[in-house]
Amino acid sequence: MWDTLYGVDSTLTPRRQMVEAEEVSVDGLTWTFRLRPGLKFHDGEPIRALDAVASINRWAARGGVVGGDRMGRMIKAIENELIAIDDRTFRWALKKAFPKMPLALGKLFVPCCFVMPARIAATDPFRQISEYVGSGPMRFVRNEWVPGAKAAFEKFAGYVPRQEPPSWLAGGKNIVVDRIEWITIPDPATAVAALQNGEVDWLADVLPDLLPLLRKNRNLVTAINDPVGYAGALVMNNLFPPFNDVRARGAILMALSQEDYMRAYVGDDDSPWKPLRGYFAPGTPLYTEEGGDIFKGPRNVEAAKRLLADSGYAGEPITLMAAQDPCPHQGLGRPHR
């Protein structure tokens, strides 16, 4: 529904999207952006630089909150000014260089920086907007929206795609269907049955237990469309015992086996997952295993027991909370990127 200034391609490299070109000063302190010509909102109004500025300001204000965007907040902390120069040009002047600017403006992790009309972007960043006027290739059909059940989108004829091959969230977004309906089916088995019966055309996520059933159906195709995938995280509450002691947290890292968790989740098929020795997804530009040595090699349960004893843990109950309603994470725990 909304377009972005930049978009990451299939290698997670940021590429120009709504931006036609950018110039960076020699010292890296001033970024000047120029929008592509012919960009329109879904109400027919042209997309101007002041809309981009207002959208960036609203996006950046959400940094530092749960689910917020800390990159936007980081840039705001070193900002001199962010202003529109003319209808298609805006400038972001900084006190300190921020070389990852395109990644900040184009990353896929929510909340991403998409462009909305300035009057809507003026809404308090901590309040939900009440008007949905998009800038992307599909238009939200508000009068058909049933929250939690159905959302419909129609092709926007006024959208001007980039003249490039598509690559994930970058390149030319050439829409080949007139309408898309998102149907929410909370129960995974019911969703799979709907797909097999032809009631829906595509499932975003499939419970691993049901994947073998779909693979046996000649009329269906299964594939990994998101190479980044989901990262399951065990988040220890370090405000209360026993995990307020770093030794107790270290004991968990010594004993925890990612492989055991994943095979318990997906079964004997190792193709849908890979070990994660760092914070970012393997195979992406930001991936590093620096600091991840504790996850490598055989698990040292005996050393973990000794470390846990040193922490003063005396067998008190530990409660593990795991979300059960999101289909791809059932049995995996709380998802976190």
Care to describe what's here?
- There is one protein chain.
- By secondary structure, the protein is of the alpha+beta class.
- Among the domains are: 6-126, Dipeptide-binding Protein, domain 1 (Alpha-Beta Complex), CATH 3.90.76.10; 246-329, no CATH class.
- 22% of the residues lie in helices and 14% in strands.
- The chain has nine helices and nine strands.
- The protein has helices spanning 49-60, 70-77, 101-106, 118-121, 188-196, 211-215, 246-255, 258-266, 301-310; strands at residues 6-8, 14-16, 19-24, 30-35, 79-86, 89-94, 138-140, 150-155, 179-183.
- The strands form three sheets. Strands 3-4-6-5 form a four-stranded antiparallel sheet. A three-stranded antiparallel sheet has the order 7-8-9, with no helix packed on it.
- A hairpin with a 5-residue loop joins β3 and β4.
- α7 packs antiparallel against α9 (301-310).
- The longest helix has 12 residues, at 49-60.
- The chain is globular and about 65 Å long.
- Residues 330-337 have low confidence and may be disordered.
Q: What's this, in brief?
A:
The chain is α+β, with helices and mostly antiparallel strands and 337 residues long. It contains 9 helices and 9 strands.
Give descriptors for this structure.
Dipeptide-binding Protein, domain 1; alpha+beta; four-stranded antiparallel beta sheet; globular; 22% helix; three-stranded antiparallel beta sheet; 337 residues
Number of DSSP-assigned strands: 9
Main sheet? Answer: 4 strands, antiparallel
Return the string of H and E elements.
EEEEHHEEHHEEEHHHHH
Radius of gyration: 23 Å
Task: Look at the structure and name the CATH superfamily of the domain at 6-126.
Answer: Dipeptide-binding Protein, Domain 1
**What integer is the average pLDDT?**
89
Low-confidence stretches: 330-337
Beta fraction: 5-15%
* CATH architecture designation of the domain at 6-126: Alpha-Beta Complex
User: What is the CATH class of the domain at 6-126?
Assistant: Alpha Beta
The strand line-up of the biggest sheet is 3-4-6-5
Distance between the termini: 23 Å
CATH T-level topology of the domain at 6-126: Dipeptide-binding Protein, domain 1
Categorize the overall geometry.
Answer: globular
Number of helices: 9
The SS-based structural class is alpha+beta
